[in-house]
Amino acid sequence: MTSTADLAIAQGPDDQERFDELIAHEQRIEPRDWMPEAYRKTLIRQISQHAHSEIIGMQPEGNWITRAPSLKRKAILMAKVQDEAGHGLYLYSAAQTLGITREEMMQQLISGKAKYSSIFNYPTPTWADMGAIGWLVDGAAICNQVPLCRASYGPYGRAMVRICKEESFHQRQGFEILLTLMQGTAEQREMAQDAVNRWYWPSLAMFGPPDDQSPNSAQSMAWKIKRFSNDELRQRFVGMLVPQAEILGVTLPDPELRWDEEAGRWHMGEIDWDEFYEVLRGNGPCNAERLERRRTAHEEGAWVREAAAEYARRRARRAEAA
Ligand SMILES: [Fe+2]
Ligand SMILES: [Fe+2]
Which residues contact 101 (CB under 8 A, 6 or more apart)? Predict the structure, then answer.
């Protein structure tokens, strides 16, 4: 039985104060807790954009499943693309706990209203792109997402734990593809280097604009959704890449890149933010193609959704009759 004392805690007179206290004490906010509307909205936007990125992110790689160079490579790539679908599903479920429906999120995506990570609007012309995506894109995703395992919103943080384990497998498989190519013929080495050249800069841009141009970051950090700034995460990522690039024998395509002993950080060349914003606005090389493919897949899957809903209705009726 619930005592009045329990109720007093659950419906305390100062919800904001309780929320602030939970955040200050590194406690989790759960779906049944009161939360400021701006916190809820920020999370819905961030988690749904993240889910959309996982789902759209299946396309550049799905493109290579039938053309991967061996049965083993096909099986691995298929498993990887399926993992990304799973990530999308956990994240949609986490967003649903905040009061938005799956249908609403899907509509926002296929209508072009919702954003997703701009990296997935680049083409994958060669097999080496599978290596570069795994190594660089999944690698950047790990740097971004490991701190999200401690995000203050419970369902988001918990979803990230499993996602990060899978992302780390993805990064290793990408590294291994590049390593194999780099130990191959001159042509294969060239193909690997070319893919790294094309994916390196967009993967750095995945962390978002520089800290002084990222107005929402401070609030997200105060809410303990975000734990490190964009520039801090970018620094970590580059620090992880440099020794790995050496093992691979690839060159990171930034002639300015060097460790700045005095500043204690990596000095890097300027990211092309105009290109980043152009792609974000929908004018990247594959934006239209990616959205069109998602729309078609959604329409073609309508009968599956209807059949599943009907099956659930029948089971419910049978359970009621029993
Ligand atoms: Fe993923
Ligand atoms: Fe991944």
Answer: none
Separation of first and last alpha carbons in the chain: 31
Q: Which ligand is nearest to the CA of 163?
A: 1
Q: Is 95 helix (H, G, I), strand (E, B) or coil?
A: helix
- Residue 57 structure tokens: 């992110």
Which residues are found with C-beta within 5 Å of the ion, ligand 1? Answer: 54, 84, 87
Ligand 2: centre distance to CA 53 (Å): 10
Note the pLDDT tens digit of each residue in 175-229.
999 999 999 999 999 999 999 999 999 999 999 999 998 878 889 999 999 999 9
Name every residue whose Cβ is closer than 8 Å to that of residue 15 and which is 6 or more positions away in sequence: 34
pTM above 0.85, yes or no: yes
DSSP-derived 3-state class of residue 260: strand
Closest CA to 98 of 38, 22, 147, 177: 38
Cα(87) to centroid of ligand 1, in Å? 5
> Using an 8 Å Cβ cutoff, are 142 and 169 in contact?
no
